[in-house]
Design goal:
Helix content: over 70%
Number of strands: 0
InterPro entries: TPR-like_helical_dom_sf
Structural class: mainly alpha
Protein name: Tetratricopeptide repeat protein
Shape: elongated
Distance between the termini: 35 Å
Order of helices and strands: HHHHH
Keywords: Membrane, Transmembrane, Transmembrane helix
Organism: Streptomyces anatolicus
Length: about 150
Amino acid sequence: MRAKITYAVTAAVLVVYFVLVGSRGVLLIQHGTALTVTFGVAVLILPFIGIWFLWKNTQFVQRANRLAAELEAEGGLPVDELRRTPSGRIDRDSADEVFARRKAETEDAPDDWRCWFRLAVAYHDARDTPRARKAMQRAIALHAGKPVNA
């Protein structure tokens, strides 16, 4: 729940920022000189890119959460079996052990979204966020029945 609140607050702050930047872009355009109009248009492009990025990330999070809920209902969520340091951080060797099992599981069933979901969690636990995201995107695509590139 804490992560959802943090995400919502961050998204709200970004939307306010986009509105402020957009209003500055409009003011520059209204000024009317060639230079200010050029800068105004450039400034207006930034909020649109930001809104698109925020929208795509929100969709990703919602889809991943739906998969997690479905997997939980099936009783297939990965069990937290990781050792932790006294400060609470995941022990790297422990994460690597779990990752090796998840990778082998995924190699045995490459078309099962559940395996890709669990692999994404293992990547995340091993602190490899880019690969975790790619594995989760693959799980989402497989669940939706979309073609997946090899």
